[in-house]
TrEMBL record:
Short name of any one Pfam family annotated for the protein: ACPS
Record carries keyword Transferase: yes
Name used for this protein in its record: 4'-phosphopantetheinyl transferase superfamily protein
Source organism of this protein record: Pseudarthrobacter quantipunctorum
Regions crossing the membrane: none
Keyword Transferase included in the entry's annotation: yes
Upper lineage: Bacteria, Bacillati, Actinomycetota, Actinomycetes, Micrococcales
PANTHER family reported in the protein's UniProt record: L-AMINOADIPATE-SEMIALDEHYDE DEHYDROGENASE-PHOSPHOPANTETHEINYL TRANSFERASE, PHOSPHOPANTETHEINE TRANSFERASE
InterPro entries, per database record: 4-PPantetheinyl_Trfase_dom, 4-PPantetheinyl_Trfase_dom_sf, P-Pant_transferase_sf
Ranges for domain 4'-phosphopantetheinyl transferase: 119-189
Keywords: Transferase
SUPFAM superfamilies attached to this UniProt entry: 4'-phosphopantetheinyl transferase
GO molecular function: transferase activity
Length: 235
Protein backbone atom coordinates (compact mmCIF):
# COMPACT_ATOMS: atom_id res chain seq x y z
CA UNK A 1 0.00 0.00 0.00
CA UNK A 2 1.39 3.41 -0.98
CA UNK A 3 0.44 6.18 1.37
CA UNK A 4 0.86 9.43 -0.50
CA UNK A 5 -0.58 12.58 0.99
CA UNK A 6 -4.33 12.32 0.52
CA UNK A 7 -6.23 9.12 -0.20
CA UNK A 8 -4.51 5.81 0.41
CA UNK A 9 -3.52 4.22 -2.91
CA UNK A 10 -2.73 0.66 -3.92
CA UNK A 11 -1.99 -0.93 -7.29
CA UNK A 12 -3.05 -4.55 -7.59
CA UNK A 13 -2.40 -7.16 -10.28
CA UNK A 14 -5.91 -8.50 -10.90
CA UNK A 15 -4.69 -12.04 -11.59
CA UNK A 16 -3.18 -12.06 -8.08
CA UNK A 17 -6.57 -11.53 -6.43
CA UNK A 18 -8.05 -14.68 -4.88
CA UNK A 19 -11.43 -15.08 -6.57
CA UNK A 20 -12.28 -17.56 -3.82
CA UNK A 21 -12.95 -14.44 -1.74
CA UNK A 22 -15.96 -13.57 -3.92
CA UNK A 23 -18.13 -14.55 -0.93
CA UNK A 24 -17.04 -11.22 0.60
CA UNK A 25 -19.09 -9.36 -2.01
CA UNK A 26 -22.70 -8.45 -1.38
CA UNK A 27 -25.78 -9.41 -3.37
CA UNK A 28 -25.74 -6.35 -5.65
CA UNK A 29 -22.08 -6.94 -6.50
CA UNK A 30 -22.59 -10.64 -7.18
CA UNK A 31 -25.67 -9.83 -9.29
CA UNK A 32 -23.70 -7.31 -11.34
CA UNK A 33 -20.92 -9.86 -11.84
CA UNK A 34 -23.44 -12.11 -13.63
CA UNK A 35 -24.20 -9.39 -16.20
CA UNK A 36 -20.79 -9.48 -17.94
CA UNK A 37 -20.70 -11.16 -21.34
CA UNK A 38 -17.58 -13.23 -20.69
CA UNK A 39 -16.09 -15.01 -17.72
CA UNK A 40 -12.88 -12.97 -18.16
CA UNK A 41 -14.80 -9.69 -17.78
CA UNK A 42 -16.73 -11.10 -14.84
CA UNK A 43 -13.50 -12.15 -13.11
CA UNK A 44 -11.91 -8.75 -13.77
CA UNK A 45 -14.89 -7.00 -12.20
CA UNK A 46 -15.01 -9.40 -9.24
CA UNK A 47 -11.26 -9.18 -8.60
CA UNK A 48 -11.41 -5.37 -8.55
CA UNK A 49 -14.30 -5.32 -6.09
CA UNK A 50 -12.56 -7.87 -3.82
CA UNK A 51 -9.31 -5.87 -3.98
CA UNK A 52 -11.13 -2.64 -3.09
CA UNK A 53 -12.73 -4.27 -0.04
CA UNK A 54 -9.36 -5.63 1.09
CA UNK A 55 -7.79 -2.19 0.60
CA UNK A 56 -10.46 -0.43 2.67
CA UNK A 57 -10.32 -3.17 5.28
CA UNK A 58 -6.54 -2.73 5.65
CA UNK A 59 -7.12 1.00 6.06
CA UNK A 60 -9.90 0.91 8.66
CA UNK A 61 -9.28 -2.42 10.42
CA UNK A 62 -12.82 -3.63 9.65
CA UNK A 63 -13.21 -7.12 8.20
CA UNK A 64 -13.70 -6.96 4.40
CA UNK A 65 -17.03 -8.81 4.57
CA UNK A 66 -18.41 -6.32 7.11
CA UNK A 67 -18.29 -3.43 4.63
CA UNK A 68 -21.53 -2.40 2.98
CA UNK A 69 -21.06 -1.29 -0.62
CA UNK A 70 -23.29 1.73 -1.18
CA UNK A 71 -22.62 2.79 -4.78
CA UNK A 72 -24.69 5.62 -6.18
CA UNK A 73 -25.30 6.48 -9.84
CA UNK A 74 -26.27 10.14 -10.25
CA UNK A 75 -27.36 9.47 -13.84
CA UNK A 76 -30.11 7.00 -12.98
CA UNK A 77 -30.32 7.84 -9.22
CA UNK A 78 -29.85 4.15 -8.64
CA UNK A 79 -28.22 2.34 -5.72
CA UNK A 80 -28.01 -0.95 -7.65
CA UNK A 81 -24.27 -1.42 -7.32
CA UNK A 82 -22.80 0.91 -9.94
CA UNK A 83 -21.65 4.52 -10.03
CA UNK A 84 -19.76 6.41 -7.31
CA UNK A 85 -18.02 3.93 -4.99
CA UNK A 86 -18.91 4.48 -1.34
CA UNK A 87 -18.73 2.05 1.59
CA UNK A 88 -20.27 1.97 5.03
CA UNK A 89 -17.79 0.52 7.53
CA UNK A 90 -18.67 -0.60 11.06
CA UNK A 91 -15.89 1.40 12.75
CA UNK A 92 -16.87 4.77 11.24
CA UNK A 93 -19.89 7.00 10.89
CA UNK A 94 -20.88 8.14 7.41
CA UNK A 95 -19.69 6.76 4.10
CA UNK A 96 -16.08 6.15 3.16
CA UNK A 97 -15.23 7.44 -0.31
CA UNK A 98 -13.24 5.31 -2.71
CA UNK A 99 -12.25 5.08 -6.33
CA UNK A 100 -11.05 2.31 -8.61
CA UNK A 101 -9.71 1.93 -12.12
CA UNK A 102 -8.87 -1.21 -14.08
CA UNK A 103 -6.73 -1.49 -17.18
CA UNK A 104 -5.50 -4.80 -18.54
CA UNK A 105 -4.36 -6.89 -15.60
CA UNK A 106 -3.98 -3.89 -13.29
CA UNK A 107 -6.22 -2.05 -10.93
CA UNK A 108 -5.56 1.16 -8.99
CA UNK A 109 -7.48 1.64 -5.76
CA UNK A 110 -8.00 4.74 -3.63
CA UNK A 111 -9.83 5.19 -0.35
CA UNK A 112 -9.92 8.09 2.04
CA UNK A 113 -10.35 8.25 5.81
CA UNK A 114 -10.43 12.03 5.43
CA UNK A 115 -14.06 13.13 5.31
CA UNK A 116 -13.32 16.52 3.74
CA UNK A 117 -13.07 15.49 0.06
CA UNK A 118 -16.47 15.60 -1.65
CA UNK A 119 -15.11 13.58 -4.53
CA UNK A 120 -12.18 11.27 -5.32
CA UNK A 121 -11.27 9.83 -8.69
CA UNK A 122 -8.42 7.68 -9.96
CA UNK A 123 -7.78 6.47 -13.46
CA UNK A 124 -5.15 4.33 -15.18
CA UNK A 125 -4.52 3.45 -18.81
CA UNK A 126 -1.64 1.91 -20.63
CA UNK A 127 0.55 4.51 -22.33
CA UNK A 128 -0.88 4.23 -25.85
CA UNK A 129 -4.58 3.98 -24.91
CA UNK A 130 -5.42 7.46 -26.23
CA UNK A 131 -3.25 7.15 -29.34
CA UNK A 132 -5.89 7.35 -32.06
CA UNK A 133 -6.64 9.97 -34.70
CA UNK A 134 -9.97 11.27 -33.45
CA UNK A 135 -8.84 11.74 -29.85
CA UNK A 136 -8.02 15.48 -29.94
CA UNK A 137 -11.30 16.52 -31.62
CA UNK A 138 -13.39 14.11 -29.55
CA UNK A 139 -11.97 14.70 -26.10
CA UNK A 140 -9.71 17.74 -25.88
CA UNK A 141 -10.56 21.40 -25.31
CA UNK A 142 -9.22 24.03 -27.73
CA UNK A 143 -6.64 25.03 -25.12
CA UNK A 144 -5.50 21.39 -24.69
CA UNK A 145 -5.25 20.99 -28.47
CA UNK A 146 -3.09 24.11 -28.54
CA UNK A 147 -0.76 22.54 -25.97
CA UNK A 148 -0.64 19.32 -28.01
CA UNK A 149 0.72 21.33 -30.98
CA UNK A 150 3.79 22.13 -28.87
CA UNK A 151 4.51 18.48 -28.03
CA UNK A 152 7.15 16.65 -30.14
CA UNK A 153 5.52 13.97 -32.36
CA UNK A 154 7.18 11.08 -30.50
CA UNK A 155 5.61 12.24 -27.21
CA UNK A 156 2.09 13.04 -28.45
CA UNK A 157 0.59 9.61 -27.65
CA UNK A 158 1.91 9.78 -24.10
CA UNK A 159 0.62 13.37 -23.72
CA UNK A 160 -2.86 12.36 -24.88
CA UNK A 161 -3.02 9.36 -22.56
CA UNK A 162 -1.85 11.44 -19.60
CA UNK A 163 -4.53 13.99 -20.36
CA UNK A 164 -7.14 11.24 -20.67
CA UNK A 165 -6.39 9.69 -17.26
CA UNK A 166 -6.51 13.16 -15.68
CA UNK A 167 -9.83 13.78 -17.37
CA UNK A 168 -11.35 10.49 -16.26
CA UNK A 169 -10.03 11.00 -12.72
CA UNK A 170 -11.73 14.41 -12.63
CA UNK A 171 -14.99 13.02 -14.09
CA UNK A 172 -14.98 10.28 -11.45
CA UNK A 173 -14.29 12.82 -8.70
CA UNK A 174 -17.26 14.82 -10.00
CA UNK A 175 -19.33 11.62 -9.89
CA UNK A 176 -20.63 12.05 -13.43
CA UNK A 177 -18.20 9.86 -15.31
CA UNK A 178 -18.65 10.16 -19.06
CA UNK A 179 -22.24 11.33 -18.62
CA UNK A 180 -20.45 14.70 -18.69
CA UNK A 181 -18.81 15.66 -21.97
CA UNK A 182 -15.03 15.19 -21.48
CA UNK A 183 -14.24 17.82 -24.12
CA UNK A 184 -15.94 20.47 -21.96
CA UNK A 185 -13.44 20.14 -19.11
CA UNK A 186 -9.88 21.39 -19.41
CA UNK A 187 -7.41 19.44 -17.29
CA UNK A 188 -4.18 20.92 -18.59
CA UNK A 189 -3.64 22.93 -15.39
CA UNK A 190 -3.54 21.96 -11.71
CA UNK A 191 -7.22 22.93 -11.33
CA UNK A 192 -9.78 21.73 -13.86
CA UNK A 193 -11.53 24.46 -15.86
CA UNK A 194 -14.99 24.40 -17.45
CA UNK A 195 -16.78 23.05 -14.38
CA UNK A 196 -20.15 24.25 -13.15
CA UNK A 197 -21.95 24.23 -9.80
CA UNK A 198 -20.16 23.73 -6.44
CA UNK A 199 -17.13 21.89 -7.96
CA UNK A 200 -16.30 25.04 -9.99
CA UNK A 201 -15.62 26.98 -6.78
CA UNK A 202 -14.01 24.07 -4.89
CA UNK A 203 -10.41 23.33 -3.95
CA UNK A 204 -9.04 20.79 -6.43
CA UNK A 205 -5.97 18.63 -6.44
CA UNK A 206 -5.17 16.81 -9.70
CA UNK A 207 -1.94 14.81 -9.76
CA UNK A 208 -0.18 12.64 -12.31
CA UNK A 209 1.02 9.56 -10.46
CA UNK A 210 4.32 7.94 -11.26
CA UNK A 211 3.58 4.29 -12.10
CA UNK A 212 6.70 3.25 -10.17
CA UNK A 213 5.57 5.15 -7.06
CA UNK A 214 2.30 3.21 -6.96
CA UNK A 215 3.91 -0.10 -8.00
CA UNK A 216 2.66 -0.39 -11.58
CA UNK A 217 4.56 -1.11 -14.81
CA UNK A 218 6.26 1.98 -16.27
CA UNK A 219 4.16 2.08 -19.45
CA UNK A 220 1.01 3.04 -17.51
CA UNK A 221 -0.36 6.53 -17.01
CA UNK A 222 -2.19 7.19 -13.75
CA UNK A 223 -3.87 10.16 -12.17
CA UNK A 224 -5.78 11.07 -9.03
CA UNK A 225 -8.21 13.96 -8.56
CA UNK A 226 -9.88 15.16 -5.36
CA UNK A 227 -12.03 18.17 -4.58
CA UNK A 228 -13.58 19.68 -1.51
CA UNK A 229 -15.65 22.76 -0.74
CA UNK A 230 -13.47 25.71 0.31
CA UNK A 231 -15.15 26.06 3.71
CA UNK A 232 -14.02 22.67 5.09
CA UNK A 233 -10.32 23.48 5.49
CA UNK A 234 -7.15 22.94 3.46
CA UNK A 235 -6.45 19.61 1.72
C1 LIG B 1 -16.70 6.11 -14.70
C2 LIG B 1 -16.20 5.73 -16.09
C3 LIG B 1 -15.64 6.97 -16.74
C4 LIG B 1 -15.08 4.68 -15.90
O1 LIG B 1 -14.88 3.96 -17.06
P1 LIG B 1 -13.61 3.05 -17.43
O2 LIG B 1 -12.41 3.88 -17.69
O3 LIG B 1 -14.06 2.17 -18.52
O4 LIG B 1 -13.36 2.10 -16.20
P2 LIG B 1 -12.42 2.19 -14.93
O5 LIG B 1 -11.97 0.80 -14.66
O6 LIG B 1 -11.36 3.23 -15.03
O7 LIG B 1 -13.43 2.64 -13.79
C5 LIG B 1 -14.50 1.83 -13.38
C6 LIG B 1 -14.88 2.27 -12.00
O8 LIG B 1 -15.27 3.65 -12.05
C7 LIG B 1 -16.09 3.90 -10.91
N1 LIG B 1 -17.25 4.64 -11.36
C8 LIG B 1 -18.24 4.25 -12.18
N2 LIG B 1 -19.14 5.25 -12.34
C9 LIG B 1 -18.68 6.28 -11.60
C10 LIG B 1 -19.18 7.58 -11.34
N3 LIG B 1 -20.33 8.03 -11.88
N4 LIG B 1 -18.46 8.39 -10.53
C11 LIG B 1 -17.31 7.97 -9.98
N5 LIG B 1 -16.78 6.73 -10.17
C12 LIG B 1 -17.48 5.90 -10.98
C13 LIG B 1 -16.46 2.55 -10.30
O9 LIG B 1 -15.61 2.35 -9.18
C14 LIG B 1 -16.09 1.58 -11.41
O10 LIG B 1 -15.71 0.34 -10.85
P3 LIG B 1 -16.75 -0.91 -10.89
O11 LIG B 1 -16.66 -1.43 -12.28
O12 LIG B 1 -16.19 -1.85 -9.88
O13 LIG B 1 -18.12 -0.40 -10.56
C15 LIG B 1 -17.35 5.17 -16.97
O14 LIG B 1 -17.69 3.90 -16.49
C16 LIG B 1 -18.56 6.05 -16.93
O15 LIG B 1 -18.58 7.13 -17.49
N6 LIG B 1 -19.60 5.65 -16.22
C17 LIG B 1 -20.81 6.45 -16.04
C18 LIG B 1 -21.66 6.43 -17.29
C19 LIG B 1 -23.10 6.59 -16.92
O16 LIG B 1 -23.51 7.57 -16.38
N7 LIG B 1 -23.84 5.56 -17.18
C20 LIG B 1 -25.23 5.57 -16.86
C21 LIG B 1 -25.52 4.38 -16.02
S1 LIG B 1 -27.24 4.38 -15.58
Amino acid sequence: MTSLQGPSLAAVRLSDVDLGLAHLLDEAELARATTFRSSALRDTFTAGRIALRLHISALTGDSPGSLTADYFCPTCSNRAGHGIPQYQVPSRAGRLRASLSRSGNWCLLAASLDERPAGIGVDIENGSAADFDGFPSLVMTANERGQLQEVPPALKARFQTRLWVRKEAVLKALGTGLAQEPSAIDVSGSTPAGLSGPPAAALWKVEDLSPAAVGMPGDFAASIATWQPRDVGPQ
